[in-house]
Each structure stands twice: as C-alpha cells, then as structure tokens.
Amino acid sequence: xxxxxxxxxxxxxxxxxxxxxxxxxxxxxxxxxxxxxxxxxxxxxxxxxxxxxxxxxxxxxxxxxxxxxxxxxxxxxxxxxxxxxxxxxxxxxxxxxxxxxxxx
Length: 104
What we know:
- This protein is α+β, with helices and mostly antiparallel strands.
- It has 2 helices and 5 strands; from the N terminus they run E-E-H-E-E-H-E.
- The chain has a 5-stranded mixed beta sheet, covered by helices on one side.
- A hairpin with a 2-residue loop joins strand 1 and strand 2.
C-alpha cells in the first residue's frame, strides 16, 4: 500500500512524504504507482523548478519527501491539488493508498 502523508500547519499544506507500493500489479506494470509517481514528480518539480520555491526535498529508496522552507501560495495550491489527485486515485483503486494528514 502507498503511504501518502501530508503535512499541514494552520489549515495549509506545507509538504508531503510518499512511500511504498500500491500492490495493484507487479512493479513496472502498476498503473496506480505510475500515476502517483508521475503526480508527485510533477508537483515537486513545479514547486522547486517552475515556481522557484525553496523546499527541502529528499529521495531515499521508494520514499520522496518535500517540505516547503517558506510559505508560498502557489506551492500550497500545488500541494492541495496533489492531495486531491491522490484522493481521487484512491477512490478509483480502493485498498491501494493510505492518506494521512499530520499537523506540524
């Protein structure tokens, strides 16, 4: 199961940590993992490269983590849209993604 953790402060998303495998299909053929991976990469690249927002990004094994270094409305909207996208994938493919929101 994919573990999607979103970090929130005062009602605004400030980052995420995504890890794991959905188990929908074998690695390399899993459309759920591919969908989530693509959305996460687009979000991280748009925030850091597209908007030029400072963020701490780490990739260790199958875990990617991003935390905004400073508040930024555009980045927060991207994080909101990533969360929504992952929620919608989870609805379409039940039992593949677990979503948690953590107050920071």
